[in-house]
Amino acid sequence: MLIRRPPDIKPSEITPRGHYLQRRQFMAGAAALGLGTAMATLCGRAAQAAPLQATKSPLSTTDEPVTPLKDITSYNNYYEFGTDKDDPLKNAHTLTIKPWKVKVDGLVGKPADYDLDDLIKPSALEERIYRMRCVEGWSMVIPWVGVPLAGLLQRLEPQASAKYVAFETLVRPAEMPGQRGLFQPLPWPYVEGLRLDEAMHPLTILAVGLYGETLPNQNGAPVRLVVPWKYGFKGIKSIVRIRLTDTQPPTTWNKANAHEYGFYSNVNPAVDHPRWSQATERRIGEGSGLFAKRRPTLLFNGYAEQVASLYNGLDLKANF
Ligand SMILES: Nc1nc2c(c(=O)[nH]1)N[C@H]1C(S)=C(S)[C@@H](COP(=O)(O)O)O[C@H]1N2
Ligand SMILES: [Mo]
Known about the structure:
Helices cover 18% and strands 21% of the residues. It is of the alpha+beta class. The strands form 2 sheets. Strands 1, 4, 5, 8, 9, 10, 12 and 13 form an 8-stranded mixed beta sheet that branches. Strands 3-2-11-6-7 form a 5-stranded mixed beta sheet. Strand 4 and strand 5 form a beta hairpin. Helix 1 packs antiparallel against helix 2. The radius of gyration is 19 Å and the shape is globular. The relative contact order is 0.17. Bound molecules: the ligand Nc1nc2c(c(=O)[nH]1)N[C@H]1C(S)=C(S)[C@@H](COP(=O)(O)O)O[C@H]1N2 and molybdenum atom (MO). The ligand Nc1nc2c(c(=O)[nH]1)N[C@H]1C(S)=C(S)[C@@H](COP(=O)(O)O)O[C@H]1N2 binds next to loops.
Protein backbone atom coordinates (compact mmCIF):
# COMPACT_ATOMS: atom_id res chain seq x y z
CA MET A 1 0.00 0.00 0.00
CA LEU A 2 1.21 3.50 -0.71
CA ILE A 3 1.91 5.95 2.04
CA ARG A 4 1.13 9.54 1.32
CA ARG A 5 1.15 12.73 3.26
CA PRO A 6 -2.31 13.83 4.32
CA PRO A 7 -3.78 16.88 2.66
CA ASP A 8 -3.46 19.96 4.84
CA ILE A 9 -6.67 20.38 6.75
CA LYS A 10 -7.50 23.79 8.13
CA PRO A 11 -9.16 23.85 11.55
CA SER A 12 -11.97 25.86 9.93
CA GLU A 13 -12.78 22.84 7.75
CA ILE A 14 -13.32 20.48 10.63
CA THR A 15 -16.96 19.70 11.35
CA PRO A 16 -17.66 18.87 14.97
CA ARG A 17 -20.39 16.36 15.80
CA GLY A 18 -22.93 19.08 16.68
CA HIS A 19 -22.66 20.44 13.16
CA TYR A 20 -23.18 16.96 11.80
CA LEU A 21 -26.52 16.73 13.59
CA GLN A 22 -27.52 20.23 12.43
CA ARG A 23 -26.50 19.32 8.94
CA ARG A 24 -28.68 16.21 9.01
CA GLN A 25 -31.68 18.32 10.03
CA PHE A 26 -30.83 20.81 7.31
CA MET A 27 -30.54 18.04 4.73
CA ALA A 28 -33.80 16.49 5.90
CA GLY A 29 -35.49 19.90 5.53
CA ALA A 30 -34.00 20.34 2.08
CA ALA A 31 -35.17 16.86 1.09
CA ALA A 32 -38.70 17.66 2.29
CA LEU A 33 -38.66 20.70 0.01
CA GLY A 34 -37.58 18.55 -2.91
CA LEU A 35 -34.16 20.14 -2.99
CA GLY A 36 -32.37 16.88 -2.22
CA THR A 37 -30.22 16.56 -5.30
CA ALA A 38 -29.07 20.14 -5.43
CA MET A 39 -28.40 20.33 -1.71
CA ALA A 40 -26.62 16.99 -1.60
CA THR A 41 -24.30 18.15 -4.35
CA LEU A 42 -23.62 21.44 -2.60
CA CYS A 43 -22.91 19.56 0.62
CA GLY A 44 -20.36 17.35 -1.09
CA ARG A 45 -22.39 14.15 -1.19
CA ALA A 46 -23.33 12.05 -4.19
CA ALA A 47 -26.64 13.09 -5.70
CA GLN A 48 -28.23 9.81 -4.68
CA ALA A 49 -27.50 10.21 -0.93
CA ALA A 50 -30.71 9.61 1.00
CA PRO A 51 -31.46 9.83 4.71
CA LEU A 52 -31.63 6.51 6.61
CA GLN A 53 -33.51 5.68 9.78
CA ALA A 54 -31.32 3.77 12.22
CA THR A 55 -31.43 2.89 15.90
CA LYS A 56 -28.33 3.76 17.92
CA SER A 57 -26.34 0.67 18.83
CA PRO A 58 -24.90 0.21 22.33
CA LEU A 59 -21.89 -1.40 20.61
CA SER A 60 -20.72 2.06 19.49
CA THR A 61 -17.57 3.65 20.85
CA THR A 62 -18.76 6.53 22.96
CA ASP A 63 -15.79 8.52 24.18
CA GLU A 64 -14.13 9.79 21.02
CA PRO A 65 -15.09 12.62 18.66
CA VAL A 66 -16.43 11.49 15.30
CA THR A 67 -14.22 12.27 12.29
CA PRO A 68 -15.60 15.09 10.11
CA LEU A 69 -17.74 13.92 7.19
CA LYS A 70 -15.50 15.84 4.82
CA ASP A 71 -12.50 13.71 5.78
CA ILE A 72 -14.36 10.39 5.75
CA THR A 73 -15.51 11.11 2.19
CA SER A 74 -12.37 12.66 0.70
CA TYR A 75 -9.52 10.56 2.14
CA ASN A 76 -10.23 7.09 0.81
CA ASN A 77 -8.65 3.88 -0.37
CA TYR A 78 -10.61 2.38 -3.25
CA TYR A 79 -8.15 1.35 -5.93
CA GLU A 80 -10.86 0.61 -8.49
CA PHE A 81 -11.06 4.42 -8.74
CA GLY A 82 -7.36 5.27 -8.48
CA THR A 83 -4.58 5.05 -5.91
CA ASP A 84 -4.52 8.66 -4.66
CA LYS A 85 -6.51 9.42 -1.53
CA ASP A 86 -8.76 11.87 -3.37
CA ASP A 87 -9.27 9.73 -6.51
CA PRO A 88 -12.35 7.91 -5.15
CA LEU A 89 -14.06 11.25 -4.40
CA LYS A 90 -13.21 12.48 -7.91
CA ASN A 91 -14.09 9.29 -9.78
CA ALA A 92 -16.56 7.12 -7.89
CA HIS A 93 -19.67 9.29 -8.18
CA THR A 94 -20.45 7.89 -11.64
CA LEU A 95 -20.74 4.28 -10.44
CA THR A 96 -24.25 2.89 -11.00
CA ILE A 97 -25.44 1.40 -7.72
CA LYS A 98 -29.08 0.73 -8.61
CA PRO A 99 -30.17 -1.96 -9.25
CA TRP A 100 -27.69 -3.97 -7.13
CA LYS A 101 -27.55 -7.73 -6.94
CA VAL A 102 -25.52 -9.81 -4.50
CA LYS A 103 -24.83 -13.41 -5.44
CA VAL A 104 -24.92 -15.75 -2.44
CA ASP A 105 -23.44 -19.18 -3.09
CA GLY A 106 -21.28 -21.95 -1.72
CA LEU A 107 -22.17 -23.80 1.48
CA VAL A 108 -25.55 -22.19 2.22
CA GLY A 109 -29.10 -23.49 2.26
CA LYS A 110 -30.45 -20.47 0.39
CA PRO A 111 -28.13 -19.62 -2.50
CA ALA A 112 -29.53 -17.02 -4.92
CA ASP A 113 -28.92 -13.75 -6.72
CA TYR A 114 -30.51 -11.40 -4.20
CA ASP A 115 -31.59 -7.83 -4.69
CA LEU A 116 -29.75 -5.83 -2.04
CA ASP A 117 -33.11 -4.56 -0.76
CA ASP A 118 -34.13 -8.15 0.00
CA LEU A 119 -30.93 -8.90 1.89
CA ILE A 120 -30.89 -5.80 4.10
CA LYS A 121 -34.16 -4.66 5.66
CA PRO A 122 -34.40 -0.91 6.37
CA SER A 123 -36.09 -1.69 9.72
CA ALA A 124 -32.94 -3.52 10.90
CA LEU A 125 -30.52 -0.60 10.40
CA GLU A 126 -28.32 0.45 13.32
CA GLU A 127 -25.89 3.30 13.77
CA ARG A 128 -22.50 1.94 14.88
CA ILE A 129 -19.81 4.47 15.69
CA TYR A 130 -16.53 2.58 15.26
CA ARG A 131 -12.84 3.38 15.46
CA MET A 132 -11.25 2.39 12.13
CA ARG A 133 -7.50 1.83 11.65
CA CYS A 134 -5.79 1.67 8.24
CA VAL A 135 -2.63 -0.40 7.92
CA GLU A 136 -0.95 2.78 6.60
CA GLY A 137 -0.98 4.30 10.10
CA TRP A 138 -4.02 6.58 10.14
CA SER A 139 -7.37 6.19 11.81
CA MET A 140 -10.87 7.67 11.88
CA VAL A 141 -14.01 7.37 13.99
CA ILE A 142 -16.92 6.68 11.65
CA PRO A 143 -20.68 6.65 12.32
CA TRP A 144 -21.67 3.72 10.11
CA VAL A 145 -25.24 2.69 9.38
CA GLY A 146 -25.67 -1.02 8.76
CA VAL A 147 -26.79 -4.43 9.94
CA PRO A 148 -24.96 -7.16 11.84
CA LEU A 149 -23.63 -9.65 9.31
CA ALA A 150 -24.57 -12.52 11.67
CA GLY A 151 -28.34 -12.10 11.26
CA LEU A 152 -28.05 -11.95 7.49
CA LEU A 153 -25.85 -15.07 7.34
CA GLN A 154 -28.23 -16.97 9.61
CA ARG A 155 -31.12 -16.26 7.24
CA LEU A 156 -29.02 -17.71 4.40
CA GLU A 157 -28.63 -20.93 6.44
CA PRO A 158 -24.91 -21.75 6.50
CA GLN A 159 -24.25 -25.48 6.18
CA ALA A 160 -22.43 -27.29 9.00
CA SER A 161 -19.32 -27.62 6.82
CA ALA A 162 -19.03 -23.84 6.23
CA LYS A 163 -15.97 -22.38 7.95
CA TYR A 164 -15.22 -19.15 6.06
CA VAL A 165 -17.02 -16.32 4.29
CA ALA A 166 -15.55 -14.96 1.04
CA PHE A 167 -16.51 -11.56 -0.37
CA GLU A 168 -16.07 -10.08 -3.85
CA THR A 169 -16.23 -6.51 -5.20
CA LEU A 170 -17.76 -5.47 -8.51
CA VAL A 171 -15.70 -5.65 -11.71
CA ARG A 172 -16.94 -2.99 -14.13
CA PRO A 173 -14.06 -1.39 -16.05
CA ALA A 174 -16.43 0.94 -17.91
CA GLU A 175 -17.23 2.65 -14.60
CA MET A 176 -14.06 1.88 -12.63
CA PRO A 177 -11.02 3.64 -14.13
CA GLY A 178 -8.57 1.64 -11.97
CA GLN A 179 -9.71 -1.52 -13.78
CA ARG A 180 -8.75 -0.31 -17.25
CA GLY A 181 -5.59 0.91 -18.88
CA LEU A 182 -2.00 -0.14 -18.59
CA PHE A 183 -1.41 0.26 -14.88
CA GLN A 184 -3.81 -1.79 -12.81
CA PRO A 185 -2.74 -1.54 -9.19
CA LEU A 186 -4.38 -4.77 -7.97
CA PRO A 187 -5.77 -8.01 -9.40
CA TRP A 188 -9.57 -7.81 -9.83
CA PRO A 189 -12.01 -8.49 -8.43
CA TYR A 190 -10.96 -7.22 -5.01
CA VAL A 191 -11.63 -10.14 -2.66
CA GLU A 192 -11.66 -10.54 1.12
CA GLY A 193 -12.49 -13.22 3.64
CA LEU A 194 -13.29 -13.89 7.27
CA ARG A 195 -13.48 -16.99 9.38
CA LEU A 196 -17.16 -17.80 9.95
CA ASP A 197 -16.90 -17.03 13.68
CA GLU A 198 -15.38 -13.61 12.88
CA ALA A 199 -18.15 -12.96 10.37
CA MET A 200 -20.77 -13.93 12.98
CA HIS A 201 -19.26 -11.73 15.71
CA PRO A 202 -21.74 -9.04 16.82
CA LEU A 203 -19.27 -6.24 15.95
CA THR A 204 -19.09 -7.28 12.27
CA ILE A 205 -21.51 -5.34 10.09
CA LEU A 206 -22.44 -4.76 6.50
CA ALA A 207 -22.70 -0.98 6.13
CA VAL A 208 -25.07 0.78 3.76
CA GLY A 209 -24.66 4.29 5.14
CA LEU A 210 -22.69 6.75 7.21
CA TYR A 211 -23.58 9.97 8.99
CA GLY A 212 -27.25 9.01 8.76
CA GLU A 213 -27.38 8.83 4.98
CA THR A 214 -26.75 6.23 2.30
CA LEU A 215 -23.06 5.51 1.66
CA PRO A 216 -21.21 7.85 -0.66
CA ASN A 217 -19.83 5.84 -3.58
CA GLN A 218 -16.24 6.46 -2.49
CA ASN A 219 -16.98 4.69 0.81
CA GLY A 220 -18.26 1.55 -0.89
CA ALA A 221 -21.88 2.09 -1.93
CA PRO A 222 -24.22 0.42 -1.92
CA VAL A 223 -22.88 -2.13 0.60
CA ARG A 224 -19.48 -2.77 2.23
CA LEU A 225 -18.00 -4.80 5.05
CA VAL A 226 -16.90 -3.20 8.36
CA VAL A 227 -14.77 -5.19 10.83
CA PRO A 228 -13.50 -2.66 13.38
CA TRP A 229 -10.76 -4.78 15.00
CA LYS A 230 -9.01 -5.41 11.67
CA TYR A 231 -7.00 -3.14 9.39
CA GLY A 232 -9.16 -1.12 7.02
CA PHE A 233 -8.39 -3.16 3.93
CA LYS A 234 -10.56 -6.03 5.26
CA GLY A 235 -13.52 -3.64 4.74
CA ILE A 236 -14.27 -4.67 1.17
CA LYS A 237 -16.45 -2.19 -0.74
CA SER A 238 -19.31 -2.53 -3.24
CA ILE A 239 -19.89 -6.22 -2.54
CA VAL A 240 -21.47 -8.31 -5.32
CA ARG A 241 -20.83 -11.81 -4.00
CA ILE A 242 -20.87 -13.58 -0.63
CA ARG A 243 -19.72 -17.18 -0.68
CA LEU A 244 -19.48 -19.66 2.19
CA THR A 245 -16.57 -22.08 1.97
CA ASP A 246 -14.78 -24.79 3.94
CA THR A 247 -11.31 -23.54 2.95
CA GLN A 248 -9.63 -20.21 3.74
CA PRO A 249 -10.43 -17.84 0.88
CA PRO A 250 -7.78 -15.73 -0.88
CA THR A 251 -7.59 -12.04 0.01
CA THR A 252 -6.47 -9.26 -2.32
CA TRP A 253 -3.64 -7.72 -0.31
CA ASN A 254 -2.27 -11.13 0.59
CA LYS A 255 -2.24 -12.03 -3.12
CA ALA A 256 -0.57 -8.71 -3.93
CA ASN A 257 2.08 -9.04 -1.19
CA ALA A 258 1.90 -12.09 1.07
CA HIS A 259 4.99 -11.00 2.98
CA GLU A 260 3.28 -7.81 4.17
CA TYR A 261 -0.43 -8.71 4.44
CA GLY A 262 -1.81 -11.87 6.03
CA PHE A 263 -5.28 -13.37 6.20
CA TYR A 264 -6.04 -12.21 9.75
CA SER A 265 -4.94 -8.57 9.55
CA ASN A 266 -5.90 -7.92 13.17
CA VAL A 267 -4.85 -4.49 14.37
CA ASN A 268 -1.81 -5.22 16.54
CA PRO A 269 0.69 -2.62 17.79
CA ALA A 270 3.15 -5.42 18.65
CA VAL A 271 3.43 -6.73 15.09
CA ASP A 272 5.16 -4.25 12.78
CA HIS A 273 4.48 -4.03 9.09
CA PRO A 274 7.79 -5.11 7.45
CA ARG A 275 8.36 -1.50 6.33
CA TRP A 276 6.99 0.50 9.28
CA SER A 277 5.88 0.32 12.90
CA GLN A 278 2.21 -0.22 13.79
CA ALA A 279 2.67 1.08 17.35
CA THR A 280 1.03 4.48 16.79
CA GLU A 281 -1.49 6.14 14.52
CA ARG A 282 -2.57 9.59 13.32
CA ARG A 283 -6.25 10.42 13.73
CA ILE A 284 -7.49 12.04 10.51
CA GLY A 285 -8.98 15.47 11.19
CA GLU A 286 -6.79 16.16 14.22
CA GLY A 287 -4.18 18.18 12.34
CA SER A 288 -1.39 17.22 10.02
CA GLY A 289 2.24 17.93 9.20
CA LEU A 290 4.07 19.50 12.14
CA PHE A 291 0.92 19.44 14.25
CA ALA A 292 0.09 15.78 13.71
CA LYS A 293 -0.19 14.15 17.08
CA ARG A 294 0.18 10.42 17.13
CA ARG A 295 -1.76 8.25 19.52
CA PRO A 296 -0.91 4.71 20.57
CA THR A 297 -2.55 1.97 18.51
CA LEU A 298 -4.48 -0.48 20.70
CA LEU A 299 -4.53 -4.27 20.38
CA PHE A 300 -7.50 -5.25 18.20
CA ASN A 301 -8.00 -1.51 17.68
CA GLY A 302 -9.39 -1.20 21.22
CA TYR A 303 -11.93 -4.01 20.80
CA ALA A 304 -9.83 -6.66 22.63
CA GLU A 305 -12.41 -7.19 25.35
CA GLN A 306 -15.00 -8.20 22.75
CA VAL A 307 -12.86 -10.15 20.25
CA ALA A 308 -9.65 -11.45 21.87
CA SER A 309 -11.30 -14.79 22.75
CA LEU A 310 -11.74 -15.51 19.02
CA TYR A 311 -7.96 -15.94 18.85
CA ASN A 312 -7.21 -17.96 21.99
CA GLY A 313 -4.24 -20.19 21.27
CA LEU A 314 -3.46 -18.54 17.93
CA ASP A 315 0.04 -17.13 17.49
CA LEU A 316 -0.75 -13.55 16.46
CA LYS A 317 2.79 -12.92 15.18
CA ALA A 318 2.71 -15.92 12.83
CA ASN A 319 -0.94 -15.24 11.90
CA PHE A 320 -0.65 -11.50 11.19
N1 LIG B 1 -13.09 -2.92 -3.32
C1 LIG B 1 -12.21 -2.30 -2.52
N2 LIG B 1 -12.46 -2.27 -1.19
C2 LIG B 1 -11.58 -1.64 -0.35
C3 LIG B 1 -10.39 -1.06 -0.86
C4 LIG B 1 -10.17 -1.10 -2.27
O1 LIG B 1 -9.16 -0.61 -2.79
N3 LIG B 1 -11.11 -1.72 -3.06
N4 LIG B 1 -9.49 -0.45 0.02
C5 LIG B 1 -9.52 -0.90 1.44
C6 LIG B 1 -8.71 -0.07 2.32
S1 LIG B 1 -7.02 -0.22 2.20
C7 LIG B 1 -9.27 0.73 3.30
S2 LIG B 1 -8.29 1.54 4.46
C8 LIG B 1 -10.75 0.92 3.38
C9 LIG B 1 -11.07 2.40 3.39
O2 LIG B 1 -12.44 2.62 3.56
P1 LIG B 1 -12.99 4.12 3.56
O3 LIG B 1 -12.46 4.78 2.32
O4 LIG B 1 -14.48 4.04 3.59
O5 LIG B 1 -12.44 4.78 4.80
O6 LIG B 1 -11.42 0.31 2.29
C10 LIG B 1 -10.96 -0.99 1.96
N5 LIG B 1 -11.85 -1.60 0.99
MO1 LIG C 1 -6.13 0.67 4.27
